[in-house]
Amino acid sequence: MSAITRDEVAHLARLSRLALTDDELDHYATQLDAIIESVAKVAEVAAEDVPPSSHALPLTNVFRADEVRQSLTPDQALGGAPAVEDDRFRVPRILGEEA
Asked: What InterPro entries does its record include (predicted)?
């Protein structure tokens, strides 16, 4: 027996403002039924002693600590720039937006 009927798919399509043909309604009813069956199988396997998780493997932070370090001065950073304006890189306008 199907867990989701063709009429339920038609109702969902109306709510979603989707125009589906009769063949599409049958096709999606079959697909949604398979999805519901798969979720039911997962629910059967899930045990109460298994804690919920968002990832299969534990996550660890692999980034270095955020520390203040010596960096380039504005003159050093802009030294090789082809064009500079107000201590910033000057680049050509590409979107035609007004400044």
From this structure: Asp/Glu-ADT_sf_sub_c, GatC
Q: What is the pLDDT of residues 64-86, one digit of tens each?
A: 888 999 999 999 999 999 999 99
pLDDT digits (tens, 9 = 90+) for 44-53: 776 777 777 7
Q: How many domains does the chain have?
A: 1
User: 3-state SS string over 17-43?
Assistant: CCCCCHHHHHHHHHHHHHHHHHHHHHH
Residue 22 belongs to domain with CATH number: 1.10.20
- 3 in Cβ contact with 37 (< 8 Å): yes
The values of phi and psi at residue 45, to 5°, are -75, -35
Q: Per the domain annotation, does 12 fall within a domain?
A: yes
